[in-house]
Every structure is written in structure tokens, then in C-alpha cells.
């Protein structure tokens, strides 16, 4: 167990501790044992391509998956177990301790209820406010997330605001319960580039002000890199690499992470032909026998098919699930990464 | 020198929009005086945020919409009227690729049948040879013959987009208009499709009009780039020049806002405010309410798209004043 705690470099008692979390739909396993702890105040990025399980991890943790999903493992918030917790426990956690925002704010908001009332609902539920206090607090939250003319916007309907402003409303609503952790699932994917920059900036400011932890789920390595302290890269239902953000992007260890970064067109410097990762992500019901990335991996060998590689320490604070990635004393001085 | 492949000259497209049930109809200028040129074998990237009119520009270029002003020339001659036999003939030489390949494919036809369809419609090749032609086409975009037997839902997103590209190539077009062709794809697949488009262009000498909101993708494929804001081009020029040293404050903000992994420390220009509503266009320069360099003049006088000494076009009073100042100083 102590090894695990070292692995994630986190403090003795993490805020959220996920252990061996698996999820299956109709007997098909889509999440193969996720171990992840989030320390208080930390910003962790989950990155991966569609279907890798980055959203399912948190939907499962918060009991938001449909009944047909079967979940095993443990998700602990402080000392409370969330998997198979009673509804009244979850009701207090969701929105109160852990809030979640989604990609499309327009469909997450109720179109026929005024914004102030929707935010007020969260305030009444999680903070026990009523009457004038609700309105005053809602206005304060709207100001906090930078909605101009907040007092008037409380009476607006979602369709009267732009996508970026609606996402601010969602963030205000998530902050209503003063959560310890905000899980943001692709919060800027539906937004324009300049608005995305605004929202990322806002999330950073709020984190600095409130000391809230942030889990940012995104397919966009750039967004993750700008926002998070620590990054977990997921592939086919597993975490395959985790490291500090700066180190991960400077020296990715896992061939999949290397491939993802090489596949991104650069914004400056010489234009070169892109190095795509050949092939496709395997279907969850048709996974290869060993490492799920092996069929697409440039460093693939027979040993890779023998078994699923464990997420092992490769250097101080660096973990990768790859048997072809050598151990090193320090990732900074090693030469093996771009082999 | 023969005429450029595609010339879009000062086109405009207005939509009438009513605010509420009883509101007065307002003219929304989706595209407002845009001129572009696409050369053979070259790519013009069009970048902008939602509502900037980049997709409408693409549709105008293909003649899918009739411009309210201006005209479109394909190889030097005006596009024939929509729906005529002449138009169909020209349209076979200009094709479009959309963002969502599943929406662009018929779910009830196999991939091969769909790729074969253009041959049937335009009467290319003998009926018996068309299947073989279609298979060849599939192979040229990296699909296997047996994948042609499958239906769209049985393929992955990247494979579907390959099928759409194959179908677009069936009539041997000279021009491809790609509207966010890789935006719906995962990073690793996105790179495959970008490489495919670049290869095809080199092989067939296609002109590409490549529309995207993603600057990194635009830079990768484009020779020239046009930046659109609220229905107008605000900056246009050689791709590397434009993106490495943007002259227009909007381009500068876009470049700065583009998330690049590992460049965290870089100061970002975060624009305040939302992209403006095309129905309520700000006076003067449409960008001035969000612009950090805006002056009094920008609020009243709309800047013209004029060349700077380095050859690019920019519609910005401040950039031109600076260039003039430098010229006077030297």
C-alpha cells in the first residue's frame, strides 16, 4: 500500500482515493481497475481519446451511471465509501463535496427555468440558504465567475446567454455547494478558442481563491497542459502513464503518450509531416491479449502480448504501464525516452 | 498565367432573422464582402470562431448558396445557375467534405455503394467497371476492399472520413472544400486524415479550401491563411508569417489562446467578452469592443483590408499606423 501512495506522490490522506475501480456494461469491461488519488487542492488532468474511460471513471465514482453498469472497487472521499453508498449519502456528496460540470452547458441547464432559480436550488440544497440570502449568494457567485450584469442575468433563461456564459453559469452552480473537488468533463470543448481561454483562466482563478481541487477531463493535451499539475493518460480503460504535467509533456515515457504528442500539429517551428498512431483504438469487447496498445505500438514485441503491463515506477514520480520502457534513476538524465 | 482555380470576389450573404414572434426582421450579415483565391495544388486555410461566416464562405465558394453580392469564378468563369446541367458538370469538379462523416454517409448503403454512386450519377466509366474503380479509390485512401462491404456504423470515425474523402475524389475534382474535416476525430486519427489530405493534394494537385477553428490544424495544411471575424476577413497572408507574427490583434489573441502542450508559462492574451452577435455588429471595426489596442478611430471607422509591407493583408488601423510610422522612420 505504501508503494501506491508513493506512486501518486500524494499526501497521507488524499481527498479522493480510487482503488481498483472497474466498470462493465452488459458483461463488457470498459474500465479495468483504476487507481487514482486526488490530494486536496490539486489539479489533475485525465487525458485520452474517446472511449478510453476518462469520463466513465468519474461517472462511476459519483454513482451517475445507469443501473445496467456493474461497478467494483472502491472510491473513498475522506473516509466515506461512495461505491454502493446509500442515495442520501450520495446526495450530500454530489454537488456538496464533489461537483461536476459537463461539455455542453446548454443541455445541462433547464431551458425553462430562470438561471437564478437553478443556481438558487443548489444553494438551498447544499447550503441551506433561503429567501434573500439565496439571491444575494447567487449574485455573488455570478460575479465570481465573471458574468457581466449579474443581477439582471439571474432572471435570464439559458437561451438568452451565449455558450461561454452558460458554462460560467454551470461553474457558478457547481461552486454553490462549496465543493472540495470540481470534476470538469471537457468543459471547453464546445466553446470557441478565445472563450476556452477565458474559462480555463476562470477555473485557475477560482482554484487559487478557494483552494478547491480540480479534475479536468479532456482529449486536448494543450488544455490539460495549461491547467493541471499532474496528468494521467488513459488508454482502453486503464491509466497507462502518470506524471507531473511539465515532465510528461517534456519527456513522455509511454509509446502511446509519445504518439499522442507526435500526432499533434505544432503551432511554431518547422512544419513536418505528422506521425499518426497507426490503426484504431481496440473495441472494449475485442481487446488484445496483453498490452492494449501493442497492436499499434512501434516498440511492440512478443513479450508485450504475454500480459497486461502494470503501471510501474520508471523514475522519481514517473509511472508508465509499458514493459519496453526502461527503469531509470531520473527521467531528466536518461536517454531512453525517444528510443 | 491562367486564371486561378477559384476566385471569390467580394461576396456577401445576408440572412433575415426575426427576434421573437413580433420582432422586426433584422438583416444578419453572415458573410460581408469576402474575397479569396485558391490556387491549384495549394491550400487556403480559413480560420475563425463560430459565427464568423467561415462555413457560409465555403458554401458560397461551392455555389451551394447564392451570394447576395459579389461573384465566384471557377477557373476564370462564373458559376452556372444552381441546379442546371452546366452547374452539375462544374460541381463534379469541386467537392465538399464535412465535419461529421456519419451524417454525410447514408446509413443504409454499404461504403462501396456510396463511393460508387458518383460514377453512376456522372456516368463515369462503364457500368461493369465502376465497382472496381470504387475499390481502387477506397484503397487509395487507405481502406481495404472488404471494408467497402461494411455499413457506415461498422466503421470507426476515421475510416468513415476516409470513405467520405474517397467519394469526394471519385469525380476527379480540382477543388476540395473541407469544412472542419478532422474536428470530430481523435488526435491520433486526426493526424492520419491530415496526412491523407496532404498526400492526395500532392498527388492530384488539388486546390483546398480548408475551414477549421483549430489553428494548429490550419497551420499544418495551409499555404495561405485567412482569419475571419464576424463575416469579414481581418487578416490574410502566408501561413507561417501570419501565425508566427500576427499583425491583427484578433489573430494575435487566437494564436495566444491556442492550447499547446508544454507551453504553460507563456503569457496568454485572454480576450474579454463574447464573440459579438452578427445581428448587432459593433460600429467601426467589429473587433474593437474586445481589442486591447483599440483607439477612438476604431470605434467609428471600419478598417479596410490593405496590404502591409511584408505582403499580407490586414484590416486594422493600429497595424497600418505602425507600419506607416516605421516606414516614415526609416
Automatic annotation (TrEMBL), chain A:
GO BP of this protein: peptide transport; transmembrane transport
SMART domains the UniProt entry points to: AAA
Molecular function, one GO term: ATP binding
All residue ranges annotated as the ABC transporter domain in the record: 16-261
UniProt keywords, alphabetically: ATP-binding, Cell membrane, Membrane, Nucleotide-binding, Transport
Membrane topology: Peripheral membrane protein
Short name of any one Pfam family annotated for the protein: oligo_HPY
SUPFAM superfamilies: P-loop containing nucleoside triphosphate hydrolases (SSF52540)
Domain of life: Bacteria
Primary subcellular site in the record, as a coarse category: membrane
Compartmental location: Cell inner membrane
Gene Ontology annotations for the cellular component aspect, listed alphabetically: plasma membrane
UniProt record similarity statement: Belongs to the ABC transporter superfamily.
Name under which the protein is recorded: ABC transporter ATP-binding protein
Source organism (scientific name): Bosea caraganae
Biological classification of the source: Bacteria, Pseudomonadati, Pseudomonadota, Alphaproteobacteria, Hyphomicrobiales
TrEMBL record, chain B:
Recorded topology in the membrane: Peripheral membrane protein
Assigned GO CC terms: plasma membrane
Protein name: ABC transporter ATP-binding protein
Protein family membership: Belongs to the ABC transporter superfamily.
A matching Pfam family: oligo_HPY
Subcellular location: Cell inner membrane
Classification via InterPro entries: AAA+_ATPase (IPR003593), ABC_transp_ATP-bind (IPR050319), ABC_transporter-like_ATP-bd (IPR003439), ABC_transporter-like_CS (IPR017871), Oligopep_ABC_C (IPR013563), P-loop_NTPase (IPR027417)
GO MF, one example: ATP hydrolysis activity
Keywords: ATP-binding, Nucleotide-binding, Transport
GO biological process: peptide transport; transmembrane transport
Domain ABC transporter, residue spans: 6-255
Gene3D superfamilies hit by this protein: P-loop containing nucleotide triphosphate hydrolases
Species whose genome carries this gene: Bosea caraganae
Domain of life: Bacteria
Organism lineage string: Bacteria, Pseudomonadati, Pseudomonadota, Alphaproteobacteria, Hyphomicrobiales
Amino acid at each position: 500500500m505504501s508503494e501506491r501512495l508513493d506512486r501518486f506522490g500524494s499526501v497521507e490522506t488524499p481527498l479522493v482515493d480510487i482503488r481498483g475501480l472497474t466498470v462493465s456494461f452488459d458483461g463488457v469491461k470498459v474500465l479495468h481497475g483504476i487507481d487514482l488519488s486526488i490530494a486536496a487542492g490539486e489539479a489533475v488532468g485525465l487525458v485520452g481519446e474517446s472511449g478510453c474511460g476518462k469520463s466513465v471513471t468519474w461517472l462511476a465514482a459519483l454513482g451517475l451511471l445507469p443501473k445496467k453498469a456493474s461497478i467494483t472497487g472502491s472510491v473513498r472521499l475522506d473516509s466515506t465509501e461512495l461505491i454502493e453508498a446509500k442515495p442520501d449519502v450520495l446526495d450530500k456528496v454530489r454537488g456538496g463535496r464533489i461537483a461536476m460540470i459537463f461539455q455542453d452547458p446548454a443541455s445541462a441547464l433547464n431551458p425553462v427555468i430562470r438561471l437564478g432559480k437553478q443556481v438558487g436550488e443548489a444553494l438551498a440544497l447544499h447550503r441551506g440558504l433561503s429567501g434573500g440570502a439565496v439571491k444575494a449568494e447567487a449574485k455573488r457567485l455570478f460575479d465570481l465567475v465573471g458574468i457581466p450584469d449579474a443581477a439582471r442575468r439571474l432572471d435570464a433563461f439559458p437561451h438568452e446567454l451565449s455558450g461561454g456564459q452558460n458554462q460560467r453559469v454551470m461553474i457558478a452552480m457547481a461552486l454553490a455547494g462549496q465543493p472540495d473537488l470540481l470534476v470538469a468533463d471537457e468543459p471547453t470543448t464546445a466553446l470557441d478558442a478565445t472563450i476556452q481561454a477565458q474559462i480555463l483562466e476562470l477555473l485557475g482563478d477560482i482554484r487559487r481563491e478557494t483552494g478547491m481541487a480540480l479534475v479536468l477531463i479532456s482529449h486536448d493535451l494543450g488544455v490539460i497542459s495549461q491547467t493541471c499539475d499532474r496528468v494521467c493518460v488513459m488508454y482502453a480503460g486503464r491509466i497507462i502513464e502518470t506524471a507531473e504535467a511539465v515532465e510528461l509533456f517534456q519527456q513522455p515515457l509511454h509509446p502511446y503518450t509519445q504518439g499522442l504528442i507526435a500526432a499533434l500539429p505544432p503551432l511554431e517551428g518547422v512544419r513536418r509531416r505528422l506521425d499518426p498512431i497507426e490503426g484504431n483504438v481496440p473495441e472494449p469487447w475485442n481487446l488484445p491479449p496483453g498490452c492494449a496498445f501493442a497492436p499499434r505500438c512501434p516498440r511492440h514485441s512478443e513479450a508485450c502480448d504475454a500480459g497486461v503491463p502494470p503501471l510501474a515506477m520508471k523514475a522519481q514520480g514517473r509511472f508508465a504501464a509499458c514493459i519496453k520502457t526502461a527503469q531509470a534513476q531520473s527521467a531528466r538524465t536518461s536517454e531512453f525516452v525517444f528510443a | 498565367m491562367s486564371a486561378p482555380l477559384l476566385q471569390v470576389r467580394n461576396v456577401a450573404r445576408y440572412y433575415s432573422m426575426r427576434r421573437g414572434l413580433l420582432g422586426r426582421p433584422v438583416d444578419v450579415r453572415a458573410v460581408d464582402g469576402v474575397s479569396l483565391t485558391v490556387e491549384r495544388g495549394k491550400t487556403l486555410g480559413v480560420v475563425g470562431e463560430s459565427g464568423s461566416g467561415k462555413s457560409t464562405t465555403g458554401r458560397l465558394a461551392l455555389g451551394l448558396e447564392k451570394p447576395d453580392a459579389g461573384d465566384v469564378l471557377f477557373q476564370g468563369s462564373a458559376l452556372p445557375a444552381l441546379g442546371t446541367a452546366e452547374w452539375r458538370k462544374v460541381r463534379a469538379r469541386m467537392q465538399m467534405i464535412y465535419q461529421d462523416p456519419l451524417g454525410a454517409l447514408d446509413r443504409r448503403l454499404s461504403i462501396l455503394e456510396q463511393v460508387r454512386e458518383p460514377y453512376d450519377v456522372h456516368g463515369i466509366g462503364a457500368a461493369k467497371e465502376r465497382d472496381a474503380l470504387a475499390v481502387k479509390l477506397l484503397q487509395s485512401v487507405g481502406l481495404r476492399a472488404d471494408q467497402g462491404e461494411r455499413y457506415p456504423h461498422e466503421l470507426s470515425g476515421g475510416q468513415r472520413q476516409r470513405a467520405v474523402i474517397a467519394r469526394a475524389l471519385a469525380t476527379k475534382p480540382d477543388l476540395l472544400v473541407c469544412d472542419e474535416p478532422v474536428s470530430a476525430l481523435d488526435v491520433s486519427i486526426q493526424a492520419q486524415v491530415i496526412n491523407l489530405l496532404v498526400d492526395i493534394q500532392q498527388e492530384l494537385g488539388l486546390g483546398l479550401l480548408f475551414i477549421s477553428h483549430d489553428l494548429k490544424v490550419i497551420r499544418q495544411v495551409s499555404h495561405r491563411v485567412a482569419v475571419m471575424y464576424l463575416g469579414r476577413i481581418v487578416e490574410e497572408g502566408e501561413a507561417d508569417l501570419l501565425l508566427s507574427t500576427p499583425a491583427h490583434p484578433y489573430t494575435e489573441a487566437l494564436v495566444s489562446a491556442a492550447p499547446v502542450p508544454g507551453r504553460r508559462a507563456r503569457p496568454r492574451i485572454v480576450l474579454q467578452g463574447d464573440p459579438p452577435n452578427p445581428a448587432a455588429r459593433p460600429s467601426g471595426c467589429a473587433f474593437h469592443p474586445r481589442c486591447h489596442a483599440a483607439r477612438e478611430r476604431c470605434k467609428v471607422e471600419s478598417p479596410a483590408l490593405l496590404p502591409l509591407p511584408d505582403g499580407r493583408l490586414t484590416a486594422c488601423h493600429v497595424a497600418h499606423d505602425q507600419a506607416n510610422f516605421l516606414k516614415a522612420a526609416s
